[in-house]
């Protein structure tokens, strides 16, 4: 047989071979006494030109046969696996004792997920920002200059030897997003914030907020009002009234706070709402032109609204929890209820 005939024959045999036969075929064609080795051994009887031709053809043939054997092996392995999978049946009814209790998300995380999914359904994307920030992101870019009294209520922890601090508000996320993207944008930024203040039933030095920001041409207070009213109705139920109260934030003008009718007494007045019938749920407003200037957006062209929601506060309203410290004590009797 010449080299070509050997290859044709080998290919045919390999394609029909099972696992066990493949090793035999390897020996038959490539082994020390194999056909191709024999051909190479017999080269001495040929002229120099023919030696070259037959020698190189035999070497190519060796590689071809070798790779065909490997390919066949892989195919057989895959067939075997597929057959095994086909035969396997998962018995879902089988009972199984698992000695550990199943974990769950912390109520604050659950609350962030729940609120985020409402905002996502209203067209918002979700972004995140760093907890260690500079004064510029936390204050200056948000229209709170150095020595401005608005810094007092947002006192936080400063990192020694640098101008970094732990962010006191997720509003830093507004700046980070606007630095990175051009309008139109509609985004929420959930995360942890820090304040230098003593803990009590309603204050904690670490808590969570969800920031919101929407910027485009022709965004008006109507957009703010409709989106946040819709959020309140989806989240707390459409039966509760919502009211907008004038307020002040350095980074919005005009600014407002939103109250919902107390879900516990439905507005009649009770201990939770301190007899007012209303509970404050968030701060909001139209983005201040100075904030746009800080991120090189043209305040003549773009307008936008922003809002900030305290996550623990919302969880406390929703579940009637009267002490914020319960969230951080890792007491399973509390946590397991969510
Ligand atoms: N950053 C504010 C705070 O921590 C909350 C807030 C109010 C955020 C109004 C906003 C806003 O984006 O428009 O008290």
The CATH topology of the largest domain is given as BirA Bifunctional Protein, domain 2
Radius of gyration: 36 Å
What number of domains? 2
- Which H/E pattern describes the elements? HHHHHEEHEHEEHEEEHEHH
CATH-wise, what's the superfamily of the largest domain?
Bira Bifunctional Protein, Domain 2
Please identify, by name, the CATH architecture of the largest domain.
Answer: 2-Layer Sandwich
Low-pLDDT windows of residues = none
CA-based shape: elongated
* Mean pLDDT level: 93
Biggest sheet statistics:
7 strands, mixed
Listed once per kind, the bound small molecules are:
3,4-dihydroxyphenylalanine
Major sheet: order of its strands? 1-4-5-9-8-7-6
The fraction of residues in strands falls at: 15-25%
Total strands: the figure is 9
Structural class: alpha+beta
State the name of the first-level CATH class of the largest domain: Alpha Beta
Give the topology, please:
Blueprint: H1 3-16, H2 19-30, H3 35-41, H4 48-87, H5 107-121, E1 125-126, E2 132-134, H6 135-138, E3 164-166, H7 172-180, E4 185-194, E5 206-216, H8 221-236, E6 242-249, E7 252-261, E8 278-287, H9 289-294, E9 303-310, H10 311-319, H11 332-335
Parallel strand pairs: 1-4
Antiparallel strand pairs: 2-3, 4-5, 5-9, 6-7, 7-8, 8-9
Helix pairs in contact: 1-2, 1-4, 2-4, 3-4, 5-10
The protein binds 3,4-dihydroxyphenylalanine.
